[in-house]
Amino acid sequence: MKRPLCPVRRAFSPWDDPGEQPLIEFRNISKRFGSFIAVDNLSLKIFKREFHALLGASGCGKTTLMRMLAGFEEPSEGRIFLEGQDLTGTPAHKRPFNMMFQSYALFPHMSAARNIAFGLEMERLPALEIKKRVWEMLSLVRLEGFAKRKPHQLSGGQRQRVALARSLVKRPKVLLLDEPLAALDKKLRENTQLELMNLQEQMRMTFLIVTHDQEEAMTVADRISVMDKGKILQNATPGEIYEQPASRFVAEFIGDINVLDGQITTKQQRNVRIFSSVLGAHLDVRYSTPAKVGDSAALAVRPEKMRLSLEKPEEPETNAIPGEVWDIAYMGDVSIYHIKVAETQTLRAIVANTSRLVERPITWDDQVWLSWDSDAGVILTR
Amino acid sequence: MMPSKPSWFNLTSLVLGFGFLYLPIVIMIVFSFNESKLVTVWTGFSLKWYAALLSNEQLLEAAWVTLRVGLISATLATVLGTLAALVLVRQGRFVGRTLFSGMIYAPLVLPEVILGLSLLLFFVAVEQSRGFWTITIAHTTVSMCYVAIVVQSRLSGYDRSLEEAAMDLGCPPVRIFFRITLPQIFPGILAGWMLAFTLSLDDLVIASFNSGPGSTTLPMKIYSQVRLGVTPEINAICTMLVVFVTIGVILASLLIKRQRLKRMQEERLAAAHL
Amino acid sequence: MNDPNLSPTSLTRSETVPALRHEPEAPENAPTNPRGTWGRFALICLPYFWLSVFFLIPFVIVARISLSEAAVAIPPYLPVIEWEQGLIGLWEAAQRWSFENYIWLIEDDLYWKAYISSLQIAFISTFLTLLIGFPIAYGMARAPRVWQPTLIMMVILPFWTSFLIRVYAWIGILKIDGLLNQALAFIGMIDEPLVILNTSIAVYIGIIYSYLPFMILPLYSSLEKLDTTLIEAAQDLGCPPLRTFWRVTIPLALPGMVAGCFLVFIPAVGEFIIPDLLGGSSTLMIGKTLWVEFFSNRDWPVSSAVATVLLVLLIVPILMFQRHETRRNEGDT
């Protein structure tokens, strides 16, 4: 069950300020491996103190994009800028970014403390300073008692924290997180997500995370870039991505959604009417879209915005269509009703199980009405 | 396959198989302690053949040559083989890559007579007189390919992101090799060295082609005596060689096993104390 | 002793047997560090240079000398190419190239008989090694888990001990008054001692004995991976044990069987020590012929020609083996 986490609106949106200079800018970046195009003419700006997530399925190019920023890959075309400075040709060991690897990549022959100290030793800092900063980091990740342990003497969660400390200790301009929590179990992962968010606020740093887990991206990020086939499909806040998906791919990738194909019949500013030939019905939507009358478009509604009733609801600005209960998936906190609204179309509605009653008012094979407000829907043209 | 109670058939084939593998060596060892000069009739226990070895100066001289060839060629082969492994695993496409990997693999399968002959003819062509150094070079050339394979399997098995992490933390490439890569592949390099050393210690054919006056190796010495017949003295020297190598290999593997057990134990402990 | 299996990783790890590990694909995303070009150049150059000088050029020389005429001189052959004369010299030399040595190889039946007999002996002993090795590998794979590292260690240990010594150890057993005849006479199985040493039987025994570990290890690694639930599934579907073995176990062990056969066959063809010490004068094998030609007859051009033909003969099985290993490794991943 994927439930959207209520997006927290922070009073932080430098991307809306045209005068703000981005910290990192990818400009028309492409990367090809042989004939395979991993990243396809992509541009992206990341701002100071932002927590940015690159979200996509494996092979979408998100890791390649991050590795190009770190300097492990050279872009085939395009440039990457850091505070306006071109990074092309700067080798990885001279870039002011640090990465936390998916495998953690802790040096197996060095203790936790030596691992954390490694990056500082490369800067040839005085030994005393190194010691001090290593201890600061160890206490930050609560591993003071484990300084002398080798990686294999640490549990998975401890290793993850050493890796985090090692990548933070040099105070990088951007912390790169490559699927950092993939190896942890669910509980630990959720806790660590919150810790990461706190850490980012506390240290006032810029984080870039690569993940395939949409819940993780929604939880931690200020903005998410949804990627597919080497392109960014949508770059927006979690709330916008969920409530105003830019395309069918994004809508279906993030959470569950009902999609009805149709054609726009009337349009008055934001008031749009779509005719669905499958249902043989007109549906009202309030949504700003560039599509014109006569264009084919899809109406998409999230299942939790659907309502079920035995009687036809008579409220204004509500779409209501009849159907039959085809299946009920009981999930504990909610139930998902699959409603057959036409021979070839079922729609899903989520109903919260607010009482402990075993007897449900609506059950299998019931004739029901499925309804939703006109501003619950979204118009998708791509 | 899952462990199961060994059936009679399996047990019998194991006993017979390992008997076949080990009996000849055991017999040879036993008869090296035989008092009689006859190698097939047991007359009593004696260490006299070992005593005779120690006074056989030719044999000791050959052993000394072999040891020196082994140490030098194994060390050279380890350096070259490790570099070759790095090239095979780490370098992308370059001109002549196929030829290069071909040259690494070919000495592993080609008959030794061909390898020995071709190197000899090379040394003759460049008018290099044969002796200690030509054997050493020949052994280095063959052993480095074995080292390359051993180190290569170690290299390709290990997490590349370790090096990226080091680079990411500001480590320049050459320092990465010495601080991160080398400690990681060191067991493989050590194993490669051991392998190169024993290969050199055992080799008869290649050494025979490339030796010159005053550079007779132990296997060559043994071979020339074996052709004259089996003697308890050869049994004794062979026993010493076998025991020497066996102890080395068993010690090494026990060491590896102990380290692995210790490591597993520590990992279990770490996982238990979350 | 051409055994890449000696890999000491297999000293303790059961899964490593592949001998000729196929060449790994050039990493697509090898670091393209512009500053590393110099270091990269030096890194490639050193081993490349060494192998070119001490492996590749010697082969060219062998091919060259095989085309020259024998002479009573030091070195005992006539020059083939006068390098001093440059390209014209090369052309003139090419006209003087003599294929006499190769014609000699064909005309004198000693040589082609030796080639054929080598291939035959290698083929038969490979088959026998498979027959003997299979039950051992099967027994190892079916042995209790705790035994297995020790058993593997015991198979690998002979790799590390001298080939020469292991062959030598058989002389005392096989000779007329040797231990085998003594033992057989003692239990009354024979009256007259068997003549085994200096016959081809002794060569077969020597090859089987020396190369048995090469057969066992790949077989074991195939059999060890075999999931017992497959056998249980076959029996559950009504297949009797022997037919299960034939229909399930054997096909799944096939890659290991093929690898083991190549590993025995290829080196056995060019074997010298075994036919020399155990085969006596009655067994004809090409490795030994080459040795005799070189050391006793001092005919360097002919021995070069013998080596060249042997090389050509072996290229086919070597390439087949390499392809098999590539496929086997791909199947693993």
UniProtKB/TrEMBL annotation, chain A:
Gene3D superfamilies for the chain: 2.40.50.100, P-loop containing nucleotide triphosphate hydrolases (3.40.50.300)
Domain ABC transporter: 24-254
Pfam families: ABC_tran, TOBE_2
The keyword Membrane is annotated on this UniProt entry: yes
GO molecular function: ABC-type polyamine transporter activity; ATP binding; ATP hydrolysis activity
One GO term (biological process): putrescine transport
EC number(s) reported in the record: 7.6.2.11
Keyword Cell inner membrane: yes
GO CC terms in record: ATP-binding cassette (ABC) transporter complex
Reaction(s) the record says it catalyses: ATP + H2O + polyamine-[polyamine-binding protein]Side 1 = ADP + phosphate + polyamineSide 2 + [polyamine-binding protein]Side 1
Keywords attached to this entry: ATP-binding, Cell inner membrane, Cell membrane, Hydrolase, Membrane, Nucleotide-binding, Translocase, Transport
Top-rank EC class of the record's enzyme: translocase
PANTHER family from the UniProt entry: PUTRESCINE TRANSPORT ATP-BINDING PROTEIN POTG (PTHR42781:SF5), SPERMIDINE/PUTRESCINE IMPORT ATP-BINDING PROTEIN POTA (PTHR42781)
Description of how the protein assembles with itself and partners: The complex is composed of two ATP-binding proteins (PotA), two transmembrane proteins (PotB and PotC) and a solute-binding protein (PotD).
Family: Belongs to the ABC transporter superfamily. Spermidine/putrescine importer (TC 3.A.1.11.1) family.
Job description of the protein: Part of the ABC transporter complex PotABCD involved in spermidine/putrescine import. Responsible for energy coupling to the transport system.
Name of the protein in its database record: Spermidine/putrescine import ATP-binding protein PotA
Gene that this polypeptide is encoded by: potA_3
Automatic annotation (TrEMBL), chain B:
Transmembrane helix recorded as keyword: yes
Highest taxon in the source lineage: Bacteria
This protein's GO CC annotations: plasma membrane
Compartment list: Cell membrane
Ranges annotated as spanning the membrane: 12-33, 69-90, 102-126, 132-151, 185-209, 234-256
Topology in membrane: Multi-pass membrane protein
Hydrolase among keywords: no
Domain spans labelled ABC transmembrane type-1: 63-255
One Pfam short name: BPD_transp_1
GO biological process: transmembrane transport
Keywords linked to the UniProt accession: Cell membrane, Membrane, Transmembrane, Transmembrane helix, Transport
Family to which the UniProt record says this protein belongs: Belongs to the binding-protein-dependent transport system permease family. CysTW subfamily.
Protein name: Inner membrane ABC transporter permease protein YdcV
Automatic annotation (TrEMBL), chain C:
Keywords of the record: Cell membrane, Membrane, Transmembrane, Transmembrane helix, Transport
InterPro entries assigned: MetI-like, MetI-like_sf
Statement: the UniProt record of this protein carries the keyword Transmembrane helix: yes
Membrane topology note: Multi-pass membrane protein
GO cellular component, one term: plasma membrane
Main location: membrane
Compositionally skewed regions (Polar residues) per UniProt: 1-15
Subcellular location: Cell membrane
Region spans: Disordered: 1-33
GO biological process: transmembrane transport
Domain ABC transmembrane type-1: 115-321
Membrane-crossing residue ranges in chain numbering: 41-67, 114-138, 150-173, 193-212, 252-274, 300-321
Record's keyword annotation contains Amino-acid biosynthesis: no
Family: Belongs to the binding-protein-dependent transport system permease family. CysTW subfamily.
PANTHER family the record matches: INNER MEMBRANE ABC TRANSPORTER PERMEASE PROTEIN YDCU-RELATED-RELATED (PTHR42929), PUTRESCINE TRANSPORT SYSTEM PERMEASE PROTEIN POTH (PTHR42929:SF3)
UniProt protein name: Putrescine transport system permease protein PotH
Organism, scientific name: Pseudovibrio axinellae
Gene, per the UniProt record: potH_3
